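Q: For a teaching handout, I want to show students what a protein-ligand complex looks like in token form. Below are the inputs, and the small molecule is copper (II) ion. Please produce the holo structure.
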Amino acid sequence: MRYSLFTFAMAFALSAAPALAQEFKAGDIVVEKPWARATPKGAEVGSGYLTIQNKGAAPDRLTGGSADFATVEIHQMSSENGVSQMRQLKDGLNIQANGSVAFSPGGYHLMFTHLTHPLTKGENVKATLNFEHAGAIEVEFSVMGIGASGTGATGGAMKGMKM
Ligand SMILES: [Cu+2]
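A: Here is the structure, written as tokens, with copper (II) ion included.
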């Protein structure tokens, strides 16, 4: 009996973090842990998050992406005078030499517009990211709950609907 609670906690932690596709690489660029939020039925937009690492000695640039389930845009959410706003980064996003950029709710995100179907928790969806130097990288987003704030064990926590 003394291990039962521990076992339960472990099982819960594992179930709260569904199989995550971990790393996708091309050249000096490594894309880690892409995840997306599930979308409510009828929603036309969704959002995706990941971390991009540049292991090279020269800067690179994420210039855009594509997917068969949506149009992929690079967005930045920021807060000015307490008002959240987001804008599309039409010129892409610079990734410093030996640097990394984390996409997360409330900051950088990939915006999936013109969704052809809702994103359902537990599924994986594929997209291609294009880098100026590293080229195209096909990545797979793990779809987390609608209120998910990250890929950790607290992924199901409701933290508002920031994108
Ligand atoms: Cu956006």
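A: Two things your students might notice: Helices lie at 4-16. Residues 153-161 have pLDDT under 50 and may be disordered.
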